[in-house]
Specification:
single chain; alpha/beta; TIM Barrel; Oligo-1,6-glucosidase, domain 2; 8-stranded parallel β-sheet; 17 helices; binds alpha-D-glucopyranose; binds calcium ion
Amino acid sequence: MKKAWWKEAVVYQIYPRSFMDSNGDGVGDINGITSRLEYLQELGIDVIWLSPVYQSPNADNGYDISDYQAIMEEFGTIEDFDRMLTRAHELGIKIMMDLVVNHTSDEHAWFVESRKSKDNPYRDYYIWKEGKENGNPPNNWGACFGGSAWKYDEQTRMYYLHLFAEKQPDLNWDNPKVREDVFHMMNWWCDKGIDGFRMDVISMISKVPGLPDGDMQGGLYGNGSPYYMNGPRVHEYLREMNEKVLSRHDLITVGEAAGVTVPEAKLYAGEDTRELNMVFQFEHVGEGAGKPGKYGKWDQEKMPLSEWKAILSKWQTELEGKAWNSLYLSNHDQPRCLSKYGNDKEEYRIISAKMLGTCIHMMQGTPYVYQGEELGMTNAGFDQIEDYRDIESLNIYRELKSLHGVPEDVAMGYLKKVSRDNARTPMQWNNSKNAGFTTGDPWIKVNPNYTEINGEAQRRDPDSVFSYYKELIRLRHEMAIIVYGTYQLLEPADEKLFLFTRELDGQKLLVICNFTEEDVVTPGSALELMGEDSEILISNYVHRMDEVLRPYEAVVYIVGNTEY
Ligand code: GLC
Ligand code: CA
């Protein structure tokens, strides 16, 4: 397998709005990030993925960009950005920018022009269509944030396509001028010295010509995704991007690829396909997997561990040597992984957070840590709709109640478990007011458990989740087997344990994770490998106990006492 620095790196995602506020306005900002870079250096991460900091009216917290070459006023200035970048580089930390180019804001100059008239030079920067004869939208697609994917525009009496919110019109990638402008903008950032791009919904940039109706799924709208996910020209466009931008700089690139399959991923992230370094796939977090709910992810049942393991193992083994994996359990669009896959009850919180970290960090791929995950932060689960800020959550709440007649408490129950705001509450720095995030009023409520769960306490505590993550990251940096070793799943049908091995150059690791709050007897297959002369590399319990695995126990053995 080819070696590369980005394969050996650990990435840390910052959601700037919620990371650190430097001026007391309740909104996280760039100077706040700069002030906390030493914390990240201590954790040991190599790269920051910075969620969008560009100028934006914030319909979707920065994922609706009105100027790609300016910084959002609330976040600071371009000088603040340059200072942050310089300081990060001094500390040995690289910065990967979020690149949101499937759509812009409707306040972007291109769209302001585009909507003016049918013959405006920017008209074809977006996807405009006449309505149907009866005045209905051009097709039946639903938008990802609810409602139709089409918005009627009075000015020219035509509809524009928005796969997300109304204020996020989709760019027309079939127009070479769009691609040229996007690539130009990317090169501008690269020349500034940034180190990579995380590409927002990049699998959606190419739409099937004619934009055919999708199958109705019981709701009001058709499913357009077969016509815009992994569309006909997406690989062509990414190869062009690679040629004109990516290959000219030394970057880390990851594509957010909803709907991606293994064969598709081998194109997006193939060793020799000249597109991207890796993609985020979504199956293990529930996309197209598990028992689908009536309302999609909102009422989806938790999938059995065996299914979850099968998904992750498929990605591990099928990309091996051909393409590269990203490894993640959380980000700003998912509920907190500890609440979803672990156990956020007081007695299991720390132990299960460490278990999840072990499971994901011991796989092959580039791990991503989402801010606060390294502290074992939990879902906020707000009880009142007034406390939610996320456009997706607010839209679905309205739709569930008014269109589907879902009772108030049931709808709130969904939000409490699944809302993206669960991951967007302020970073918990210390036990002072507002968790040390701001001296003002935070834009979204702080999770009240900050008095227990916070960075300051955990940095001092060798047994904290923070210290454990630090160790996981250190081990990855020291041991090639953790980065490059071949993965093999053991006991695929076991519904309580996740067991796998890694192998490289005659070395072997055995990884054991108990996903339950019960004692579980260690299977023979594992005992055999553990043997007598195996050594513990890392574990979330102090004392060794081979025969039985304790609640949420995680342990990694160096099999047969191989030196490392
Ligand atoms: C991606 C982002 C998400 C955003 C959406 C639209 O999925 O991660 O936060 O809302 O794209 O840009
Ligand atoms: Ca601020």
